[in-house]
Design goal:
This protein is globular. Strands 1-2 form a two-stranded antiparallel ribbon. The longest helix is centred in the middle third of the chain and has 34 residues, at 94-127. By secondary structure, it is an all-alpha fold. 75% of the residues lie in helices and 2% in strands. It has helices at residues 24-51, 58-86, 94-127, 132-135, 138-156, 158-164, 181-185, 193-226, 231-239, 242-264, 270-295, 297-311, and strands at 11-13, 91-93.
Amino acid sequence: MGLFNVTHPASFLLTGIPGLASSHSWLAGPLCVMYTVAFGGNAVILQAVRMEPSLHKPMYYLLALLSFSDVAMSMATLPTVLRTFCLNARNITFDACLIQMFLIHSFSMMESGILLSMSLDRYVAICDPLHYATVLTDGVIAGMGIAVTARSFVTLFPLPFLIMRLPICRSNVLSHSYCLHPDMMKLACADITVNIIYGLFVLVSTFCMDLVFIFLSYVLILRSVMAIASHEERLKALNTCVSHILAVLAFYVPMIGVSIVHRFGKHVPHYILVLMSNIYLFLPPVLNPLIYSAKTKEIRRAIVHMFRHIKM
């Protein structure tokens, strides 16, 4: 059967939160606030890093890249989420759904790769501070950014084609207010083994490996910190990692929670699964700028300086 002879619906119907349809208008307000914080907070950090010479360092370049991926992720979900919750407009064309699915998964993987790059930055800064400037040059940081972006788009490039080869005839109703690969493949009335195997390969080879390497970097960081004689110096070194650790937790804890519930929570109400998926996608873009603004005094100082400059 040819790729373009397969039966596809002209469009999919998106779902807000099953069982809570009457509350969608109430949820629209908090969602708008979350998007405003995500766009505003990350835009402020991007501008602060761009304008403030003291932030032209590897750590803050990577933070700017994290803010960019958060903005991109928010933009990928924004059109359908707001249409579903604010306008009750649930239709999305098949092609638009494929594009949104690809972008959401790509920017999610990109965020994981950036968090791994930031853990490498913290490892070099604490374990080999004398060579920090020579190891993490602007060229190396740019290379890391390109590698993380390329990995995301190349690894996930097959996903839309894996969906296009499937005849979708069970239903055209998706269980979220955006398009995801697992959600779309379950609507196929054909063997989805290839999709399942490729999805698992992507999960293990990227997200899981990133998390393993982040964990290993912090084992080495802790070992190096414990070798520092002064208690104050130990706390000072660890304090430079707090923001990154919180960002890692904000990204991976909801993701692991969703994965566990999907695998083992057969009797969990469906709306709980949808809420957890929404938390996984919406929480990091909202929390990351707040975490870094609250915990990094250089960022706070740059933001204050930037707003003073704008006011003048």
